[in-house]
Each structure stands twice: as C-alpha cells, then as structure tokens.
Amino acid sequence: MHQAQLAHQAIAPAERYRAIGLRQIAADPRFEKLPADVREGVEVLSQVLPFRTNSYVADLVDWDAVPDDPIFQLTFPQREMLAPEAYERVASLLRARAAAPEIRVAADEIRLRMNPHPAGQLTHNVPKLDGRPVEGVQHKYRETVLYFPSQGQTCHAYCTYCFRWPQFVGMADLKFEARASERLQAYLRRHPEVTDVLVTGGDPMIMKTASLRAHLEPLLAPDFAHLRSLRIGTKALAYWPQRFVTDDDADDVLRFFERVVASGRQLAVMAHFSHPRELSTALVREAIRRIRSTGAQIRMQAPLVRRVNDAAETWAEMWRTGVQLGLVPYYMFVERDTGPKNYFEVPLARAYQIFRDAYQNVSGLARTVRGPSMSAHPGKVRVLGVQTVAGQKVFVLDLLQARNHHWVRRPFFAKFSRRATWFSDLRPAFGEDRFFFDGVRDRTPEERELLEMPVTN
Ligand SMILES: *Cc1c(COP(=O)(O)O)cnc(C)c1O
Ligand code: SF4
Questions:
Q1: Measured from the CB, is residue 53 less than 6 Å from ligand 1?
Q2: Is residue 227 in some structural domain?
Q3: How far, in Å, is the centroid of ligand 2 from the Cα of 168?
C-alpha cells in the first residue's frame, strides 16, 4: 500500500531541512486528528526524552495506522516509555501549567534513573595520549577508532530507542565530544594498528560538508597510510536523504567521498535502516545511487526494536531490498540497556529466532549480515543459537569483536533463559562459574599492543 505508492513518487523540489519538535507537530493536521491520549503521550514524553522529527519522516508515517505504525514508533515518544508514576508526575505538572524550571527538575530526575551511559561508554574506552584523555575518541577494538566530532552530536530526527539520548537533552556533563581533529590525528600517528576510523555521533551527516571535511580531510595525508577505511555512521539516508541529493552542499559531500576513494581507501557509509519503508522512496533511492556513484560502499545496520522491526519478514524484506539497491547487510543489534528499554526490548531467544528466520529467507548476497549482537563490556556478543547439549538447554554465543582480539570467534555457552534480554542476564552453562574472558584484567589499547593477554580456556 503505502510502500508501493511511495516508490513511484517523483522527487519533490528541493526542501530545506527544518526540525519538527512538539510545537510544530501540535499544529500538523495529521497530528491534531490523533486520539487525545496519544497526543498527550507525545507532549509529556518530550519533556523527558528528546523529540525531533522532520517533514520527510512525518510523510513516511502511515497516519491511519498510528500509534502502531512502525515509523511513528520510531520517532514519536509514547506514554508507555515511562513508568506510570513518572508519567503521571510530569503529566500533572503540565496539566497544572507548572513553570518550566519545575518541569525540568522532574524530567532530569527521571532521566538520571534511566541508565544514560551503558557498558562503561564514558570511562572505559576513551584512550589517552601523553597521559591526557583524547576527547571525542573511543578506542575499544584494535583496528577501529570511533570519532565523535562536536558538530555532529545531533540528528535529522531522533530515534525513540536511541542510547545516545543524553547527548541531545542538554545534560552537559554527560556529553562527550571532540573540539578538533588534531588530537585524533596525533593519536592515530602513534597507533599504526588502527586501520579504520569510524565517524559517529549523533549523526556526522548533520554537519555541513565544510565541517565534515575540516575534521576528516587531514586523515588523507601521507602520515596516515595505515588508515585503510573511513567509515561514516549515519541515519541521514533514512531521515533526510536530501542531504545527498538536493541540500545546498549535497554535491560537495559527494566530491569529498570521491576524494577519499581516490586516496585509495574505502569510504564506507554505515547506514542505519530500521524498516524497509525507509528504503522505498524515490529520494532515498536517488541518494543511494549518488553515493554509490562516488565509489563509496553502503552497509546497513540497525537494532532490533519491539514495535518497530520485531518481525523476521521485516528484516528479510529490508535486506532483500537493500541488496537490490547495492547495499551490504552488516549488523543486527540487540537494543541496549538504556533509556526506555523496557518498552523496546526483545528477549534474546526471540531476537535469535527473528534473525534466523530472516536469514533463512534471503539470498546468500544478504547473508553478509551478522547478529543478533549485543555491544557489551567484553565486546560484541553474538547469539549464535539455542541448543540442547547433554540435556541442558543453552545459548551458544561468541564475540564478533572483543576488547582482546584473542577472544573473537570462540564459541561459549550460557544457560538458556526465555526472559533474558541482555548479556548481563546470562550465566555460564555446565556448572562453570565464569565465561572464559571474565576476570581477565582490562587493558588500555597501549597495553594491548604490548601484551598478549592470557586467555583462560
Ligand atoms: C561496533 C563497534 C566498532 C566497529 O566494529 P566493526 O565490527 O569493525 O564494525 C568499533 N568500536 C566500537 C566501540 C563498536 O561498538
Ligand atoms: S540516528 Fe542514531 S544517534 Fe541519532 S537518534 Fe537515531 S540511533 Fe540515535
């Protein structure tokens, strides 16, 4: 229905990007027609969690199917994302027309209880250079450095399930960012083991091309011959494909991609696609065509999220269409333990089932995808399967990435649990008291260079 219609739409004349927040959406006739409790939900929640959508995303919503529509769920916050007492606290303040600072205090308290930084993001993976932390950089896996340019800490729309939400709601001391790429460059000069820089955010494609180039072009210099790939993690193809087609500096960004490719490196766009509908418009297809014409590769990844994409056929269709358009399926993630997780979480057993059923129903070209994967403290933990071994039902797991590369691709076992939704819910199987990597002291990337760490199995 909706999908077929969209695919035949012509590309609309150039439209400038404009964020839609609570005030603008309240005036949209499609929103005004929604039931009062759905509208109140968005109003209350947007005091606590960041809410932003835009005209392109709002047009992707099937408004007759709200609130269940997956694209509505993707950017519009819902009442059930807060515990009932937290919801009522904010709702009653709003009904009483409380002053903004009073609402803010309540909202901040509620947010702080929502585990804003899971998996030791802030403390564990920020590397040091000459004894000082390299701000805006994380280095967890040997080959790949993550870089968070300060101007890229926002997005064209906000996913309701985003684990980076503290960055968007003005909790200043929870933010981490890079003021300039100089420290990154200095760090990379000392780390020849790094082959990939993955620029992330927020969404780096929110930046003007000039800023993006200022951050990244220096990395094309001869000192960085060890860099083989530059990756850009982005949801702009799903949320604002105009960025690559009709925005003022759309052509400039393509020229920059060409320059990266001409330097002999892979430019990989790590595109976040959550639902096949995001691949259906004429605009996104034109954006994909243009990016690929620069020699860049596009890989696709997303978390598995209840109410948005928790069906095997949704993923199978997304991977099939992606492959058809020249994209490479990459990761299916398990939703992290942060924010309104209870609202979105899918048990690991179910996640595995969805992954397997989707994977079984696509061509080999789409089976480049790996998952379901949890970004946990030891690394990216994949659920390989569920099996009964010697009478015990277990999860078979492995690490796709690990803070110690010796841990990668060694199958291990956890007791099966129907309700487990995250790695921390899992316990070793077969009477073991720990997983093989537990208790091995963490190392900094520098130490990792020097030491081959003992592996206990
Ligand atoms: C996923 C991830 C990467 C990239 O890993 P690849 O498997 O190479 O895509 C790098 N750093 C961190 C912290 C990650 O979570
Ligand atoms: S696009 Fe990425 S960073 Fe932005 S809100 Fe969505 S998940 Fe978060």
A1: no
A2: no
A3: 10
140 lines ligand 1 (CB under 6 A): yes
Q: Among the atoms of ligand 2, which is closest to the Cα of residue 161?
A: 7
Kindly report whether the global pTM for this prediction surpasses the value 0.85: yes
Instruction: Judge whether residue 123 has pLDDT over 80.
Output: no
Contact 212, 230 (CB under 8 A): no
For 32, the domain range is 3-112
Distance of CA 299 from the midpoint of ligand 1 (Å): 13
Q: Answer yes or no: are the C-beta atoms of 175 and 228 closer than 8 Å.
A: no
- Spell out the alpha helix ranges (H) of 176-279: 182-189, 209-216, 236-239, 250-262
- N-to-C CA span, the chain: 53
User: Which pLDDT belongs to residue 294?
Assistant: 98
454 contact partners, CB below 8 Å, separation of at least 6 = 440
Model pLDDT for residues 177-218, shown as the tens digit of each residue: 445 688 999 999 999 999 999 999 889 999 999 999 999 999
Quote the number of domains for the chain.
Answer: 1
Copy the structure tokens of residue 64.
Answer: 């007759």
Residue 202 lies in a domain: no
Residue 229 lies in a domain: no
